[in-house]
Amino acid sequence: MGLAVWWLWMPLLALVVRLVKHLAFGGFGQQDQSYLLLIEREFFPNGGPLDAAPLFWFWVAVGLCGTVWGVVHIAEEAGADLGGWRVRLTAAVVVLAVVGSLARAGTGLWDADKDAGRFYAAATVLDIPAGGAGTPRSVLPVTEHTRPGDGGRCDLVGTADVPACVKTAPMPDFDFEARTASYAAATKALTDSAGLTSGIHLLGHSLHYLPDDSAGGGVWTAVLDGSGEQPMEGVAVWDGRSNSVVTCAFRGDHAFRRAFGGTGAVSLRNLLAERFPGLVYSDQDIWGYCDGTDPRTARPVVVISVARQTGFRQRTVLEPAGVLVLRGSSDGRPDVSYRATVAPGELPGAVYPASVVRSQIHEVQWLGGRGAKDDRGFGYAHTSAAANATNPGEFLLRSKADGHLYYVTPLVPRDSSSQLVVAFAVVQADRAGGGLNDLHVYVRGDDDPSVNLDVLASRMVSYMAQQTSITISAGKDGALQEIIPFGRDRWRGFVDFNGQTQDYIDLSGDARVTPNLVSLNGSITAPGGQPPQAPAPSPSSPPSSAPSSPPNPASPSPPAAPPAGGCGDDPGKLTTGQLAACVAELSKALQGRVQDQAAPRP
Known about the structure:
This protein has 602 residues and is α+β, with helices and mostly antiparallel strands. The chain is built from 11 helices and 25 strands. The protein has helices at residues 2-24, 29-42, 54-78, 85-121, 140-143, 183-193, 268-275, 354-362, 369-375, 453-468, 576-598, and strands at 124-128, 146-148, 156-158, 165-168, 201-202, 208-210, 219-225, 227-228, 234-238, 246-249, 261-262, 279-280, 286-291, 299-312, 315-327, 335-339, 380-382, 395-398, 405-413, 423-428, 439-443, 480-486, 490-497, 500-508, 516-519. The strands form 5 sheets. Strands 1, 2, 3, 4, 17, 18, 19, 20 and 21 form a 9-stranded mixed beta sheet that branches. Strands 5, 6, 7, 9 and 10 form a 5-stranded antiparallel beta sheet that branches.
């Protein structure tokens, strides 16, 4: 009886907790779901003792030790002979079982992080350029230890215990459509202008960019969520250029009486957990759109890119599992449909979870094995450049070449202070189903023109000062908020004033193409000054950098001449125009130095 209690007290306790959560907290689906996922993750990743998690084997080892102590104690009380061969054989078997359980737990703990790398590496391809200066140095820890592949998907395969696939191919010319507003400006516009009811707030991580088939036709959307007993209001839409935000609302025969932030019977999270206990999601994978040509009369639709916790060896991993599509109904009950697979074009936004993409990028570090990761710092990371501090990657862009949506992320070397962009991570975002989508890491050659987002920001700031006599700063609290890639070696930076994108600047990474400064509708207000005339696009700009919206035809006023005594005079004695002229001269000198430093070495 004592041994039975010793072995069963933990499973019985787990069962009691499960019953309490299920019966006492009925209707709170998140309670049930989180607990069941916890048990699966910590004990039975594959549904049973086969390939159980390390914690299960620790429990077995402790149980066996307690069993040995209990048997010896009972035998001593009964006066049995403890020196007999049967007792010794039993003790030896139990000791071996304890050692085996501890070894199984130890290997599970040691390989847990590598197993995650193994799972995501199976859908990762390192694309390296052919010719040039040879294999890029950032990928040498993998390519130094490879053997020939099948010549199809992989030209080379790694010899480490983590699968690595290397393809000799440069990054295709996706020719991505550029955006017309930054993430920060969209956050400001949608937060300040959306929601007509108390208790409504912007579901921050639901901010989503929906590219359109026409250039510059994309829009920003966000879910207007409720709180407490206030249900969700709808989906807000901003075109990235105007000051107005329109909303398609849940109303009439398309009502929706739940909210992600709701409590009790209004909680949408509990409802989803009850109906789909095997599906999980991150807030950044929630987005919405208006189903109709006119957002004011269209019906709102909320989409959730979901994942499934699945067992892999002695641990669990998250695997994409389709989408949940939420619509309203005449009685206010959410109409929720689950699609395990989604083909390109079925929905206007991303159906592949961005949270899974980030995990895939993180696990690239394992492609060369533990030694390459730990000893040589192999891998790639998101940039920490100031201009992209709040939005460093997973940019959702549409390719003009094939019309598909992709997550595009500039990458810098992992475990390094360098901010040079050495690779791009690209994942197709408009298709889900059948497991992981391939992550292509397009590695840039060592002889490619160097690209540093901080240097790009400096060039953009300098060019802005030259063209408008306005000095801006880059970073989270600056005017230059975000730099995203588009086209071949083309970058766009957004200039925000008072929370709204007023301009964007296009330039090339190699500094060989004349920058293109485009002023959107509206004036530019210098900090503490009067709004000057907005600049026109540079006439020398190539056709591929044409603005996606009509620029202001006005030309900037010519800057004032520097003071007679030079710019070394006391700034307090200079006029506003003279001070602006000095700043422009300083910016020109700075730009020249930056371009000299950024020029490729022979």
